């Protein structure tokens, strides 16, 4: 794609960050006060707001999770009645998926994509602002639904019909919130795709882009393809509830199983939406701390695209127990297993990158290695669940809960922590305290496994999910899981107070421009903290697209 | 600093992507409503 990105046009001197000194008077640095954040159009500010928002929602969703685990510490009903318990599980899922993981990755994308491709900002800065600020009313509606008549939605995060057709007004609030969050995601995706395809610095060809940009490009396409499908499903739910249609209401000839098909046509790609950007982060961190170039870059790109394409043809593996022809079960079973191939390509490439590398284990690398360890475990249980005969036994048990938490907590979240420790020195200009980072990692890893590993046994023994009570024989493993969950939660509180807040307050050692000796990429070519404006003038890159060697000549056509 | 030609290219691509999203949204509902 040809490109002519703006040039200084007046012969100004340009430093290696692409900052035009003679134009400095036109840019007054960061605005001050509340206007800086409310009217923010700078990708770094918006990225920061996304990350703060996502962490806030993560803590709120975590409190709901601890409510669930408190109730399950003992058999019998301790704190919550079953209806409220179902509200907790539903809202925990909705908030973590739509309020925490997805916005957090958009925050990473806002911060890093323009920096990594040498772009001055996102393509549509004002739309970027709107995408973020739409999250706030949506989050308020979701969280506020607890205080509506009948309480919060309690139909599970999948909001299955016909349960959704029978619930109180909070379901309408949740549907509206999901519409808004979907619109925000679609706008964010459009912004990311246009930025990556049209705004790359001259010489930054697609196959020279950092893997994080590639994974986000593919994720953004996935979002544009599937978010409208979810919007359609919940719109039809809304019309069933209020406007007399019967899309999913069997009382009028509708089909609730059709809702499940539509939801999972969105839902399974959504799983990859939540994991592909983490793959990109891990693909940046491991080469940096192994001090080797990423093994099999091209195969990583194709593997990512393959995973995305395959994610569209596996949705019904979530529905084996709804009843389907054996040929259908076989198709979805084998298609699901096929995803293990490109995923395996990725895992083996990460291991090959580490092989005979000059490895050190600073905190980002610990999180990356931890990611591979626990995510692979989640992947293996995914393969087990892909087999229709086994899935029919394990459907809706704690085995499934263990599986998707190994993939989403130990996958997405560990990937995000790897990315945070890796890039936060660039964002804040301060180094975190290495010992604190390692303490956060080890406590999280240990308590995560204490919380979720026993759930495999619970599921295999037949304990169903979404129940507030259970028979006595499940007590020991449930107690263990609850202790692990509280330990994991406390570990994140420690992260907030010992790592995040000190960095935000400017405490700690000053971060050098290049804190990791093995790291490569344009983000390490700008000072720490990254200046408010970067790459206003397109940089001239070396052959690998990893270093700036000057300013691009006037009128240079890109890529 | 994004020049006019680049802005137009950005807008064109954004509109294409947005139209895909709208077609998927409307198409899914229309399919369910009219084709069952």
Give your account of this protein's structure.
The complex is a heterodimer of chains A (559) and B (36). In chain A, α4 packs antiparallel against α6, α7 packs parallel to α10 (297-310) and α13 runs parallel beside α16 (434-460). Mean pLDDT of chain A is 92; it is low at 1-14 and 19-26. Chain A has helices spanning 34-38, 43-71, 82-117, 125-133, 135-144, 170-198, 211-242, 256-273, 276-290, 297-310, 326-338, 340-354, 363-386, 388-394, 398-428, 434-460, 475-504; strands at residues 539-541, 548-551. In chain A, 62% of the residues lie in helices and 1% in strands. Chain B is mainly alpha-helical and 36 residues long. The interface between A and B is medium-sized, with 33 and 21 residues.
Q: Which protein chains are joined by the largest interface, and how many residues does each one contribute? A: A-B, 33 and 21 residues
Total strands of chain B: 0
- What distance lies between the first and last C-alpha atoms of chain A, to the nearest angstrom? 7 Å
Q: Unreliable segments of chain B (pLDDT under 50, ≥5 consecutive)?
A: none
Question: What percentage of the residues of chain A does DSSP assign to strands (E)?
Answer: under 5%
User: What value does the Rg of chain A take, in angstroms?
Assistant: 24 Å
Radius of gyration of chain B: 15 Å
Report the count of strand segments of chain A.
2
Based on helices, strands and strand pairing, what is the structural class of chain B? Answer: mainly alpha
Overall shape of chain A: globular
Biggest sheet statistics of chain B: none
What letter string, H or E per element, gives the SSE order of chain A?
HHHHHHHHHHHHHHHHHEE
The largest β sheet of chain A comes out as: 2 strands, antiparallel
